[in-house]
């Protein structure tokens, strides 16, 4: 049977994708089945049923979040009906914002579960078991809460590392910000742009034998023009080392000569694979090392001090450290993933087999290290997790966050932000000062004004520090629309916040670590 016939038969006999796969096809390409499973098992609490909150939820319901609860004691007002697309217009006025939001959001995906909770957040926090109820959620999103309530919620969820992360969202007209509060967040599948090393500078035995066994001189011209550049580089490097004391090219002159040696092997002037090898020649003299960010994890306190209740991530890093110091000989486990290259199908498959076989061998050696650090058993760490960890060992991430609003009490950090991120800080100061003024003036006749909010902003800065020049424009906008959730701002925030929430839930890609500020007057976003 020919290759084409075999492929056709496989396509015919392969089972058709189920409804879920068809529905979520595009996002499965982003975060795969493991990410989708995490999303479908997540429980999200959103505090507010306003326009921003429902826009965020729309972008979580569509990709298939498992469950969401809207916590909101308010009823729908005509203003809500005018700016919230997830209400039934004036028909929703007078009804519960939470119940209306849940009802209409659930129409977008019948695979999602939703619930309305009409208590206030204060009632939840004051009630027996309130903290435990909050702890049942995977993540909590709070939108436009009053300062005192936000601080109380942030404090409760910061008490224990086991409590869920908190996303605080504050929109005001065309300005907004959001912040993710978490103790720490580990990422195995960060999806980096840089691929793991092919280890051309230190080829494994089977690859070296294969490269040296090919008869370049007497090879058919067509085959010669389709040798993968990896094989060419291994061959040229090995021959170079024989006449240079076992060393790769060191100087600029030697590197130039090395490239000339590659091109000199061509049988025809238009052999693209040799041109590709010349362009990738740096791989031959670039030493395979453990990336600095991954190596820094080896010295992390939690890696150095095992705990009986630690996350699998730390056990995996501990095993990786052992592997690198032992059988890895200073390198990470080999990856079986190869980049695209000019090669015949047969030559590419042969190279892929070599890498896959060696990668499987090194994965088994890594698992032996894992068993050793785990006391003999790796039960609880799935094979898919080990595969993902080994594949992404060059791009592991360990993020440590801070409590929400910590920046407002960090005078040194504020002064530094004035110098480095004045535009971003101006928006943050305007929103924080607005929240402070609103809390302070509650129950009084004090009127909101640019002067009053500016005075509150100055109180946030240490003595002698001046407000950024851009603050004047920002304070004007927050005073103009202090509590307004404009549809376009809500829509943008809905996408931005949901994107970061999905990163947190799936533990894929790298979430923001700081304030994300939004300026729709000048149409830009930034990180503070």
TrEMBL record:
Protein's name in the database: NEDD8-activating enzyme E1 regulatory subunit
Q: What does this protein do?
A: Regulatory subunit of the dimeric UBA3-ULA1 E1 enzyme.
**Which UniProt key words apply to this protein?**
Ubl conjugation pathway
Domain THIF-type NAD/FAD binding fold, chain residue ranges per copy: 24-141
Give the family from UniProt: Belongs to the ubiquitin-activating E1 family. ULA1 subfamily.
Q: Which GO terms describe its biological process?
A: protein neddylation
UniProt GO molecular function: NEDD8 activating enzyme activity
Taxonomic classification, please?
A: Eukaryota, Fungi, Dikarya, Basidiomycota, Agaricomycotina
**Matches recorded under Pfam families:** ThiF (PF00899)
What is the species of this protein?
Answer: Psilocybe cyanescens
The pathway where this protein functions is:
Protein modification; protein neddylation
Q: Which GO terms describe its cellular component?
A: cytoplasm
């Amino acid at each position: 049977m020919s290759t084409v016939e075999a492929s056709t038969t496989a396509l015919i006999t392969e089972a058709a994708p189920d409804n879920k796969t068809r529905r979520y096809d595009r996002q499965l390409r982003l975060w795969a089945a493991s990410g989708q499973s995490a999303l479908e098992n997540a429980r999200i609490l959103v505090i507010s049923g306003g326009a921003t909150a429902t826009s965020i939820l729309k972008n979580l319901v569509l990709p298939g979040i498992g469950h969401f609860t809207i916590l909101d004691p308010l009823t729908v007002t005509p203003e809500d009906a005018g700016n919230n697309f997830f209400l039934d217009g004036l028909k929703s006025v007078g009804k519960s914002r939470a119940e209306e939001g849940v009802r209409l959001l659930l129409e977008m995906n019948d695979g999602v579960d939703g619930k309305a909770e009409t208590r206030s957040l204060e009632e939840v926090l004051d009630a027996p078991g309130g903290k435990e109820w909050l702890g049942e959620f995977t993540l909590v999103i709070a939108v436009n809460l009053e300062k005192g309530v936000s601080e109380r919620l942030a404090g409760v969820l910061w008490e224990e590392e086991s409590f869920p992360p908190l996303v605080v969202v504050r929109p005001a007209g065309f300005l907004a910000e959001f912040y993710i509060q978490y103790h720490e967040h580990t990422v195995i599948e960060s999806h980096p742009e840089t691929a793991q090393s092919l280890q051309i500078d230190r080829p494994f035995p089977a690859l070296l034998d294969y490269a040296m066994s090919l008869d370049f001189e007497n090879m058919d011209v067509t085959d010669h023009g389709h040798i993968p550049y990896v094989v060419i580089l291994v061959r040229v490097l090995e021959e170079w080392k024989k006449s240079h004391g076992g060393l790769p090219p060191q100087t600029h002159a030697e590197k130039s000569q090395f490239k000339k040696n590659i091109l000199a092997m061509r049988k025809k002037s238009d052999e693209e694979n040799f041109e590709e090898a010349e362009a990738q020649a740096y791989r031959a003299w670039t030493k395979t090392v453990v990336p600095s960010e991954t190596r820094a994890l080896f010295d992390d306190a939690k890696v150095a001090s095992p705990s009986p209740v630690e996350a699998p991530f730390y056990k995996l890093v501990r095993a990786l450290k052992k592997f690198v110091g032992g059988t890895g000989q200073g390198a990470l486990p080999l990856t079986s993933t190869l980049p695209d290259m000019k090669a015949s199908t047969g030559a590419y498959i042969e190279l892929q087999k070599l890498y896959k076989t060696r990668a499987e061998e090194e994965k088994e050696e890594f698992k032996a290290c894992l068993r050793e650090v785990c006391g003999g058993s790796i039960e609880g760490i799935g094979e898919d997790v080990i595969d993902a960890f080994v594949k992404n060992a060059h791009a592991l991430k360990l993020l440590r966050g801070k409590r929400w609003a910590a920046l407002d009490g960090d005078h040194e950090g504020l002064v530094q932000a004035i110098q480095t991120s004045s535009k971003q800080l101006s928006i943050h100061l305007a929103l924080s000062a607005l929240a402070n003024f609103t809390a302070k003036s509650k129950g009084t006749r004090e009127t909101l004004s640019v002067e009053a909010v500016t005075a509150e902003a100055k109180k946030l800065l240490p003595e002698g520090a001046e407000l950024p020049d851009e603050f004047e424009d920002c304070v004007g906008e927050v005073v103009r629309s202090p509590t307004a959730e404009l549809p376009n701002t809500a829509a943008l925030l809905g996408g931005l916040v949901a994107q970061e929430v999905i990163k947190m839930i799936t533990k894929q890609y790298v979430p923001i670590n700081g304030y994300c500020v939004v300026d729709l007057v000048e149409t830009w976003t930034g990180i503070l």
